[in-house]
Every structure is written in C-alpha cells, then in structure tokens.
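Protocol step 4 of 6: record predicted structures for both targets in the notebook before any analysis. Target 1:
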Amino acid sequence: MLEQVCKAARQQALLPTVLTFTPHPREYFARLNHRPELSPPQISGLRDKLTALADCGIEQIILARFNRAMAEMSATDFVLQLLIEELGVRWLLVGEDFRFGRQRMGDIALLKQLGSQHGMQVQTMLEVTDAHGHRISSSEVRAALGAGDLKHAAHLLGRTFAMTGHVIHGQKLGRTLNMPTMNMKVTPRCAARSGIYVVRVHGLGPLPLPGVASLGVRPTVEDNGRILLETHLLTTNLDAYGKLIRVELLQHVRDEEKFPDLPTLTAAMHADAQHARAYFALHGL
C-alpha cells in the first residue's frame, strides 16, 4: 500500500503522506464506554510506527487526534473539511472496506463522489495476501505476537518485530544477581506476549549485540503492574543509560513466571541466558 502511495506521489509531484489517528478509534470508544478490554493491543509504539513509515518512503505523517469532535464528525465533513480543506489531499488510497465519519456512515461510493467533485482522486486496494493466499492484517499480526509466534509475525510484517526506546534506570537488581539489564518502557497494551525472549540489540555499536530479554511486569520483585522490557547482553556490559536502542525479538523462550524467591529467579535467568547462547550458536547473530 505504501509503495503505491509513493509511486503515485512521484508521478504527480505530490508529497507521500499517511494519515493516522491517536488514540486508535477502537481505543477511544472502549474508554468512552468503560470497556478497556475492547482496546486493541498495540503492535508498535508511536516512535516505531513513524520510523517504519519513514523507512517505506513516506515523507509526511498526519497524526490526527481522535476525540469527541472527530468521532461526531459527519462523513461528508470528514472528506470536505479534513481531507480536502485542511490537508489538501489530491490523491487518496484506502482499503476496499474503508468506513469513515460518525457511526461509520461514510463508504467508498461517497468518498469517490465527493472526491470527483473537489479534485481528489480516490483509489481502493484489495486486501493483501501472502504467497499462499492468506490475508495479511493487523489482527493477524496481533494474534501472532500474542501467541509468541515471532516467525509468523515477521512473515506478516515483512521484518523482524522490534521495540525502540531509551534505556532508563531501574532497581539495578540484575547487577546484584550478576545479570545486569537495560530497562526500557513499553507501550501500554503491548501486543507481544509477556515472557522471556532471545533478542538482538541495535544502537550500542556498529554491529547488533546478542541478548536475552524479559517482557512483562516483573511479578517476582514488583507489583506495580508497569510493563518493562529488560534486556541482558550476553557478550558485553555497557553503560547504556539514556541511549536509544532497538531490540529485535527473535524467539519466545517461555512465559513470565512468579518465582518463590530470588535464588530460584536467578537460576531461571541463567538458564534463559544459556538458551539464548545456544540459539545464537545455531543461528548466528
């Protein structure tokens, strides 16, 4: 889809642009109806989303606030006020099932009708399928990440699933256990399954570094419910506080557990590190 946008932009001397919303409309309505369980898990944080779009050639990203005014905007106003008057859209690509406006009343027919009246060309795109004819969608990606199936998630995404963030200070418990870790905040409602992962870390040198990471709420040592990604480097110990790193999740090792004491936790951490070393010995970095 993004390739088509960039191609059309080059042909018509326009700026390849993506319009996206924050929060996700489903999340907005889940909050409004006090049904947080209906909020969709997030595949990527904002930084990762914008970086991925830029890597695909998108030069401008419109981040629209989805609020009450946006939710109540009529389908006609969505096209005339937002797309045409405010953004000056000349060429638009949407999926065939695209709906918009209050109560999702707008459809492709209305979009094309208003577009033809105001100089906006509208193109639609069929659903994307892989070589086996299976539909590729965000729901499928969320399901794969939730199951810890990183191979399938990478197949759907076209790249290894990764998280980016700044290394923050933690309790430094890992140091006392001879397993120093780099802590990174994770986007709320992260789609990835909690647990232990074999990872590859970028941003700390010219080459990626092998590691093992824990994604979750640290149930053995904390009870505040904050989700963190804690990464232990297998081959080096660096002062990474404040640095921006990208952590690729390569394999889900096991689910998060609450251990009865620190010695049991320590033994499990060292076993996870050994598993990661065996992974890289087999697959390489």
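Target 2:
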Amino acid sequence: MKKWALPLSLAAGVLALSGCNGDGNVIATSKAGDVTDMELYAEMKEKFGPQMEQALQELMQKKVLSEKYEVTDKELEKEMKTAKEQLGDQYEMFLAQYSLDEDGFKEFLKLELLREKAALADVKITDDEVKKYYDTWQPEINVSHILVEDEAKAKEVQQKLADGGDFAKLAKEYSTDPGSAENGGSLGWIDNAGRAQFVPEFTKALGTLKVNEVSKPVKSDYGYHIIKITEQKEKGSFKDMKDQMTNELKKSKIDSDTLQTKLDKEMKAADVKVTDEDLKGAFETEDDAKSKEAK
C-alpha cells in the first residue's frame, strides 16, 4: 500500500514570487507602511530555509522533467483514483493536514509521476524476468483487521465473530489501531508490493486467507491481529497483464538513491544554476559536498 507523505512545501509561495524584481510589488498596505512580495520572500527564506530549497527543487524538477517526459491526463487521473482509494475516508483529512486542495495534490502527483518516468527510463529487464514476476504476483485485496493487546481479548473477539458478530462493529469497539478502527477495521486495498509493508506475521497470514475468511489471532510486536480479506481482484492472463507487470517490476528496482542519482543527472544535463546566494545548496549533490570538504 502506497504511503502518501508530503513535505512542508512552500512551492506555491515561491511560484507567486518567482517573477519579482527590483523592490518588488506591494502585496499589503497599512498606515505604518507597505509590505512587498520581495520582503515576504526574504522573510520566508529566513524562517523556512530548508523548505524553500525543497520548493525550488520541486519547481525546477517539474520544468526540466516536463521537457523530456510526459504525464498524460489519463495517467494523472489514474494516480488520483489510486490515491483516493488507498486513503479512503481519510482523503479529506489528508488534504487538510497539508493545507492542500485537490488541484494542489494533483500537482504533487504529477511531479511524482515525472520523477518516476525519469528513473524508469534507464531500467532494463528481460521477458523472462517479467514472466517470473507474474507467476509470483498476487492481485489486490481489500483487508480489514482488529488489533487487541493480549491473547485473551483476541479470543473473546474471535468467539464473538464465530457467534455471528459483525466484523466492522467489533473493530470499532475493540481495535486499538486508531487508523483503521473508525473505518470498521478497514486497511483499504493492498496491492502486491503493499503486502510486504506489514509486519512479517501479518503478511504471512494474508497469504493463507481466502475472501471472507477470518484468521486466527496473529501475534506481532503490536499485539494480536484478527484479519479478514473482504474482497480480492481477479488475476488476468500474462498476455493481458504483461505491460503492467513490466512497469511494476521496473518500479521495484528503483530505490531512493537510484532516483536521486537520476534527478541529479537530469538537473546537471539541464545546466541548472541557482543565482540566489541563500539557495545555492538546493541542487548540491553528495559529490559536490565532498569536493567542498576536500578543499
């Protein structure tokens, strides 16, 4: 299951100020004096230095990568749909947490897709690798669980379920997992890669369950889980799924270091230069830092 994590981004503010020059434009007035966009820009740099660098990186990466890679409206809408499905009822809360509207979140996803396309451009895989990946690939499942602190409580819940108790109601009553309890224990749709993001005991149990089957209490470091798969999507033929399998396998070969190396390469090829002295380090690579230290 993909984890959507957004930094504190000031990209919108930087965009608004990017055209400033000279003394700047007046953006607020008072009897005590005016405030210009350049003054605000300077204040933002003073208070949010690292975030300003990150915002600059985001803006420049979007410009540079958009020249070389394309994100279609169809791809963006698909990514939005996936995000909404995975966030479920928490979608609106997620937007509020990061002070985003839907258009702002869509812009973030577009940059993520551009970065992904850039990183995948250099990944090569064979048909044999794709076939082996398909053979072990498991379709998406909709998972719910009830987490309790001890085995006695787990057996109590298990008995109530055996007696016909409603899983969602019991999750709200007993589960100590605040992220899912309010949603009736639902963890949402879990894809093939997402299975491995759970603790090993949980992942192993998922591989043994059928749809609507409830697990025995599964012990982990968090307590005892009672797990249920409520839905499962169909697995298509290799022919129908080959493109999807190829893309997923390529993604699995990309880690944060590989992505950063590719982004550094793209920025260098675009001859990115920062003229603002306070933001000079925004595109500094590890090699640049080591070179400075050596001097």
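Step 5 preliminary note on target 2. The chain has three domains: 1-120, 122-137+245-271, 139-232. Residues 1-120 form one domain.
Proceed to step 6 after PI sign-off.
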